[in-house]
Write a structure and sequence with these properties.
Elements: H1 2-40, H2 43-61, E1 66-70, H3 73-86, E2 100-102, H4 107-116, H5 122-130, E3 136-140, H6 147-158, E4 162-165
Parallel strand pairs: 1-2, 1-3, 3-4
Helix pairs in contact: 5-6
Length: 166
């Protein structure tokens, strides 16, 4: 009987510690989010975003397309963003589709390129095949250190692409 009570007591203590840690982490992440939003409000950053949007619009009007890539969760973001460009961003606003392709959704290409070349070449190889000088590359990375993202950015510079990376 005492052993069961001890285990129950230890379990309760662990749950309290986990909840405290979760609460601290939650508060810390909210604070980080607030700080980031304050930084984004900076006029210099705002002007860079508007310049980027303007260049992308000109490229699309010139017959270009948006090529998007990322790894892991950023790959999911790339696919989602491509779908939003192709379909529509807002349900009540109909507009022409914007040509966009996620470079990270074809499992056959991903596995073949990774096997035959290297994972580093994954996006740059795709870019070489389907990209042209009117296209825009959006590279999404949380670390900024992914070898395949760095490689595709180098390749896009050689092909005179406009690139933006997050």
């Amino acid at each position: 009987m005492k052993r069961f009570q001890l285990q129950k007591s230890l379990g309760h203590t662990l749950k309290i510690k986990m909840l405290n840690k979760l609460e601290f982490s939650f508060d810390k992440n909210i604070e980080k989010s607030i700080e980031l939003k304050k930084k984004l409000k900076n006029k210099n950053f705002k002007s860079k975003v508007f310049k980027c949007v303007s260049v992308i619009a000109r490229k699309i009007e010139s017959g270009g397309k948006i090529l998007i890539c990322g790894n892991g969760g950023s790959a999911a973001d790339a696919q989602h963003l491509a779908a939003e460009f192709l379909v529509r961003l807002r349900p009540k606003v109909n507009r022409r589709p914007i040509p966009a392709i996620s470079l990270c959704m074809d499992t056959s290409t991903i596995t073949a390129c990774s096997n035959d070349y290297s994972f580093k070449k994954l996006f740059s190889r795709n870019l070489e095949a389907i990209g042209n000088e009117n296209d825009v590359l959006l590279a999404i990375s949380t670390s900024g250190n992914s070898s395949n993202i760095l490689e595709v950015l180098k390749t896009s510079k050689k092909k005179i692409f406009f690139q933006s990376h997050f």
